[in-house]
Specification:
Number of helices: 9
Strand content: 5-15%
Shape: elongated
Oligomer: single chain
Order of helices and strands: HHEHEEHEHHHHH
CATH class of the largest domain: Mainly Alpha
CATH topology of the largest domain: Multidrug efflux transporter AcrB transmembrane fold
Distance between the termini: 39 Å
Radius of gyration: 23 Å
Number of domains: 2
Number of strands: 4
Largest sheet: 4 strands, antiparallel
Helix content: 55-70%
Length: 286
């Protein structure tokens, strides 16, 4: 597989502050969005049924419109209505009686395919486990990076980039209306892996291989940028296909990965690189 043709970026023309300013400004905006969501809703991003509890009714509504479906279920508090393939999926609160819900659907002439109910207690437990999983993954990544490089600034550069790679997608999820589901959590965990991979690649080329700083950076970019752009293209393709076939979960996972991988390009080759250059020429390693 051929590499993407990566142009040499004239990093010499920019100071470290200029390079770091853009990703740090975007991170600051992302943190403000997340903080605003937390103040308004009590969570940094809207939670899916797996974490809040709820009842999901999947059914074949024929040619009924969204307005007609909502009218049929007007006696219930409908949280969301979406398409899943050729079927429709209605999400309601966990207190809804499943038998009453099924009877209402059948009276409306809809073919019930499945009813799933998640209790609020189970959702809360799943939420805690997902949070613990993310914290453990991030902490484990930080420890591994520290053991590999054994120096503060290069390790900090990788951890800071990975942190930003997670915060930016979370903020964008709030903006575009993607709930935090188990699938989205899996996507965030994959982003941590992608981020560490690209950042370690850059740090290794700059700190542990022969050649000038800028030559080493360009070698790392030829591999790292090609790898990331290929992954972004694959995720965009998956998002489009999932959207066309109405597979909303796959579409959302793909979008979260696109957000994270795009942020990783910015953070790796601007934020991380500015810290590495400061470390090598002005900091402890001079």
């Amino acid at each position: 597989m051929g590499r993407v043709d990566v142009e040499r970026i004239p990093y010499e023309e920019y100071t470290n502050r200029q390079l770091a300013a853009v990703p740090l400004a975007i991170l600051a905006v992302a943190l403000l969005v997340i903080a605003g969501a937390y103040v308004l809703a009590g969570t940094p991003v809207d939670l899916g049924t797996e974490f809040t509890g709820g009842t999901e009714l999947r059914f074949d509504a024929g040619g009924a419109s969204d307005a007609e479906i909502r009218e049929e279920f007007s006696e219930f508090e409908v949280e969301s209505l979406r398409s899943v393939g050729d079927a429709r999926e209605l999400v309601l609160g966990p207190e809804v009686d499943s038998q009453e819900l099924e009877a209402t659907a059948e009276e409306a002439g809809y073919d019930v395919l499945a009813i799933e109910r998640v209790s609020a207690d189970f959702g809360s437990e799943a939420q805690s486990q997902a949070l613990i999983g993310l914290v453990i993954a991030f902490a484990g990544m930080s420890i591994l990076v520290a053991l590999i490089f054994r120096t503060f600034v290069p390790s900090l550069a990788i951890v800071a980039s990975a942190f930003s790679d997670i915060m930016i997608p979370l903020a964008l999820m709030n903006i575009v209306g993607i709930d935090l589901t188990l699938g989205a959590v899996a996507a965030l965990l994959m982003i941590i892996g992608y981020s560490v991979d690209s950042d370690i690649l850059l740090n290794n080329h700059v700190l542990k291989r022969h050649g000038s700083f800028y030559e080493s950076t360009f070698r790392a970019m030829r591999t790292g940028v090609s790898m990331t752009l290929t992954s972004i293209a694959a995720m965009v393709t998956m998002a489009v296909v999932a959207w066309l076939f109405g597979i909303e979960l796959m579409n959302e996972i793909a979008l979260v990965l696109v957000f994270g991988l795009s942020a990783d390009l910015l953070n790796t080759y601007m934020l991380n690189l500015s810290l590495l250059r400061w470390y090598k020429y002005e900091g402890i390693a001079r």
